[in-house]
Amino acid sequence: MNKSFLTLVALSVSLLVGAQTKYSHYYQNLPCAVEEVKEVIIPDYSVSLTDFGAVGDGKTDCSAAFAEALKQLKKQGGGHLIVPNGTWLTGPINLISNFDLHLEPQATILFSTNKELYVQKSDSLRDGSKKCNACVYGSKLENVSITGRGTLDGQGFYWRPIKQKKVSEDIWNEALAMGGVTMPDGNSKNWKVWYPFNLKKEYNIPNIAKDAITQEKMRPHLVNITDSKNVLMENVHLLNSPKFHFVPTRVQNLIIDGVNIRCPHWAQNGDAMDPGNVQVALIVNCNISCGDDGICMKGGVGEKGVAAGPQRDFLITNDTVYRAHGGFVIGSEFSGGMQRLVVKDCRFEGTDIGCRFKSAPGRGGWCEDIYCYNIIMKDIIESAFLISSGYADKGAGVSATDSDDKNAFFPDWSNITFRDITCIGSKQAVEIQGLKGKPVHNILFDNVTIIGNKNGIKMEWAEDIKFQNCNINPKPMPITDYKKIKNVLYNGKDPDAAE
Fold first, then answer.
1. Spatial distance between the Cα atoms of 392 and 366, rounded to a whole number of angstroms
2. Residues 190 and 281 both lie in one domain
C-alpha cells in the first residue's frame, strides 16, 4: 500500500482525535447536528485574594482587594484569582478577559446590601430610574470563567418585593419588621406586596430611587456577561440573586457545567439561568430550585432580537429542576429565533410547568429543530406541557399589560418534538394556546406518557399537532411501574428509602 496514503490516513485520525474535548461525549447520537462547545482556556498564572489585604470575616469590605487583584491580573495578561475559604464581603465585581474567578469549596462571596454601590453613572432612564450593574458583570470579554465549589450570595431578600399570597405568615411578618413599604397587589385584591424601600435605619440600606416601584425596576442580576466569547460557569453555587441568577447575553461558546442555583420559591423574578441570543452552548449536570423559570431560553424583543441572531446550537442534558415556574422554558421574548435546541436526560420535579413555551405578539420569533426527549417529570403543579402565544408578564403589584407591537413578531411555535417523556402527576397534561390566524403547528408528541393528570389535552388555534404512541391517563401509576421509573431516574437509588 502507498506509504503516502497511510501517512495521510494517520494524520487525519490524529486530527480527529485532537479535536475531541472533555465535552465531546455529550454530543453522541443527537437527533440533529449541534455545534460542539470548545474548552475555555485561561492563562496559567494565579494570585490569592488575601495577597491584596482581603479579610474573609463576612464584615470587612473586600471591594478594593478584588479591584486590585483584577488590576494585577490584567497587567499579567490574565490568570486565576483564588478566593480562599471564608466569607468575603464586596460590592460588584467587574470581570476582565482571560480571567478565572475561582472559589474554594468553603468560600462565599457575599455581595453588599449597600445598593448605591451598584448604580451605574449613566443618564437616567425615561421613568427616572437608573440601571444597576450585576453583582458580577462584564462585557466584550474573551475567555472568562467562574469556577470552584464555592458560593456567590446576592442577598436578594434586601432587594426583592414579596407578594403576600406567596409566603408564610412568618416570612411576611419578618419583612414588615424591617420597615419597607406595602401596596395593594394589582393582580389580587385581597393581598399586598411588600417592597424593601424606606427600610429601618439600623439596616443602613439607603434608597436609590424616588419611590418603591422605580427602585424595584433597578434590581441587579447576580451574574451578567454580555457580548463575549468563551464563557465558562463550572461547579459554583449561585444563591439569592436580587433578580435573575445567571444572564449570559449575546455570548458565543458558553458552558454551564455542574452549577447549583438556589433561592426561595417565592422570590420574585428569581430565574435560575436566562441565556439570550447565545450561539453554541452546553448546559449540563446542573441542579436548580428557584423562584421563577429554571432553564430559560431568551431571544430578544423585536428588531433588536433579530439583529442579535438566533439562540442556536444548545445541548441541555443531565440537569435537574425542582421548584421553578418552568423546568425547560422558551420565552417570553425570542424574536431572534430558536434553532437546534436539544434537551435530553433531564428531570423536572415539583415545577409549576414542565416544558413551558410562552410568548406574545411583539416578542415572538421562529423555531427550528427543537427536541426534548428522555425526560421524566414528577408532581407538576400545572401543565406538563404548555405552549402559549398569549403570555403577558405580570409584575409585582401591577396589573398584566402588554404594550409590545401587536402588528409584528408573532410567535411561530413549530418544528418541536417531545419524545420518550414520562410525567407522573400534573393538573393539566397538555395545553396549547395559539392565536387566530397564527396557530401553533407542526408539533410531535411521540411515546409520551402522562399518568395521574387531572385534565387531559386542551388546544385552541392549533393545527398539525400529532400524538403517536402516547398514553395520557388520569389514573395514578401502579407502584411497581413507579419503582421502575425511579430506578432509571435516580440511577438505581430510591430517594424515598430510609438512609
1. 19
2. no
The Cα–Cα gap between 277 and 248 comes to 9
Average pLDDT of the residues in 418-447: 97
DSSP sequence for 342-391: EEEEEEEES-SEEEEEE--TTS--BEEEEEEEEEEEEEEEEEEEEEES--
10 against 438, higher pLDDT? 438
DSSP state string for 395-438: -TTS-----S-TTS---B--SEEEEEEEEEEEEEEEEEE-BTTB
Which DSSP symbol is given to 126? T
pTM higher than 0.85 for the full model?
yes
Helices (H), 48-112: 63-75
Angle in degrees, CA 377, 381, 387, rounded to 5: 75
Residue 118: the pLDDT is 97
Same domain, 189 and 285: no
Residues 206-222 have a mean pLDDT of 95
d(CA 151, CA 121): 28
What CATH number does residue 472 fall under?
Answer: 2.160.20.10
Q: What is the DSSP secondary structure assignment for residue 62, as one 8-state letter?
A: -
Query: What whole-number distance in Å separates Cα of residue 309 and Cα of residue 403?
Result: 23
Rounded-to-integer distance, Cα 79 and Cα 432, Å: 49
Q: Residue 387 pLDDT > 50, yes or no?
A: yes
User: Mean pLDDT, to the nearest integer, of 157-163?
Assistant: 97
Evaluate if residue 17 carries a pLDDT over 60.
Answer: no
Percent of the chain exceeding pLDDT 70 equals 87
Using CA atoms, how far apart are residues 140 and 25, in angstroms rounded to an integer? 30
Give the C-alpha separation, 295 to 382, whole Å: 17
Q: What is the DSSP letter of 221?
A: P
Distance between CA atoms of residues 342 and 153, nearest Å: 30
- Where in the sequence is the domain holding 270, given as residue range(s)? 244-489
DSSP state of 341: E
- Whether residue 427 is found in the same domain as residue 313: yes
In this predicted model, what pLDDT tens digit does every residue of 302-344 receive, in sequence order? 999 999 999 999 999 999 999 999 999 999 999 999 999 999 9
